[in-house]
Amino acid sequence: MAHSRKYKRIEKNIVARFMQGAGAFFAKIGRGFARVFRIFDEKLTIMIVPHSQSKVINIQTNVFAMSLGFVVVLGIVGSFIYFNRRSMGTNVEISRLREENRETLASLDELRDENNNLLQTAKRFQNSLSQSLSLLGINQSSTTSKGVSHSSDLASLFDTQDIASGSLKETTDIRQLTAYLESAVQPVEEIGRMLENQGTLFTDIPNIWPVKGGIGHISMAFGQNVHPITQQWYIHKGLDFSTWRSGDPVVATANGQVVTVSYNESFGNFVIIKHKHGIYTRYAHLNSTRVKKGQQVSQREVIGTIGKTGIVTGPHLHYEVHIGSDVVDPAKYINIK
User: Fold this and answer.
1) Using 50, 70 and 90 to split pLDDT, how confident is the model at 167?
2) Is the dihedral of CA 262, 316, 236, 259 positive or negative?
3) CA of residue 137 relative to chain centroid, distance
4) Most CB contacts within 10 A, which of 121, 159, 185, 216?
């Protein structure tokens, strides 16, 4: 019992001290607020004294009102400065956007000009393609109808001027041009296949310059000429090619088989090649030969070099073309492509 009474007295003392301390703390806080209120409630008089003899104006207020007014004025000034800076930044951004807009418009005008140039080029391409297809006997309408409809033809492209205005019109033109070009791929590929098929025929017919690299010139044409040695009129049965020197390579003008590699007093060293379709070619006055009888040669393959063997006045190549037993003008077959 004695111990319980002792603990109760200690507990009461602790509670009493806590309550006393809390009361003293809140009392101090209250006195602090009271001092603040007294400070803010202190009366102030603002006197406005004009330079003239007008009545002096007295304005009575307190510290709180003055402080509040100062804070309001400071907020207004700060807001003004903030929004003014925002406005300046916005003006700068607007100026930048206007400049970008001008550049964009300039680029758009340039794009429209290039689009017009493209359309004109496409129109010329259409005309050239149509003429080429007509010459080759290819029906353009049948080939283009397999790719796209007739509306993709360039003729319809140039007739649709009222589809839209502005950039939409350019977009429509480009789409139709793309469709036409896609349809033109097939006839162009058909031309390529035709040329590829005919390429073999071209390599079997003598049709190129017989001196490698296309150098030199024709020093005597086919037909009636004055013989350079006898000075008598005679029929020259070939073409003479001269480079003013010996040793330049001579090439086969078509695929074929070498049937003769020989020498005589008139032609000197010469080579005869047999081609398809009953065509023969002769290469005379050679300085040297680089093929053998029976050898298969390809077009543009070197068969010898220009020389001055046989009856000649200087180094040159004498070139003949025979069809069966007839001698023909080789000039008609050079660059026949």
Assistant:
1) low
2) positive
3) 34
4) 216
DSSP string covering 30-96, please?
A: HHHHHHHHHHHT-EEEEEE--SSSPPPEEEEEEHHHHHHHHHHHHHHHHHHHHHHHHHHHHHHHHHH
d(CA 194, CA 114): 34
- Token couple for 32: 């602090």
Long-range contact set of residues 268-273: C-beta below 8 Å, sequence gap at least 24: 268/307, 268/308, 268/309, 268/310, 268/311, 268/312, 269/304, 269/307, 269/309, 269/310, 270/310, 270/318, 271/303, 271/304, 273/297, 273/303
Q: Choose between 105 and 249: higher pLDDT.
A: 249
pTM of the model: 0.47
> Which residue in 29, 28, 62 sits closest to 45, CA to CA?
62
Q: Residue 222: name the closest of 132, 330, 73 by CA.
A: 330
Helix crossing, 63-136 with 167-204: angle to 10°? 30
Q: What is the pLDDT of residue 163?
A: 46
Report the percent of the chain where pLDDT is more than 90.
Answer: 35
DSSP state of 278: G
On the 0-12 / 13-18 / 19+ scale of CB atoms within 10 A, 138 is: middle
State the DSSP H helix or E strand holding residue 240, giving kind and residue range, or none if neither.
strand 239-242
pLDDT at 305: 97
Which residue is associated with the tokens 């100062």?
A: 70
What per-residue confidence (pLDDT) applies to 140? 59
Q: What is the pLDDT of residue 203?
A: 87
pLDDT-based confidence at residue 90 (cuts at 50, 70, 90): confident
The answer to whether residues 203 and 218 touch, using CB atoms and an 8 Å cutoff, is no
**Residues 223-239 pLDDT 10s:** 999 888 888 999 999 99
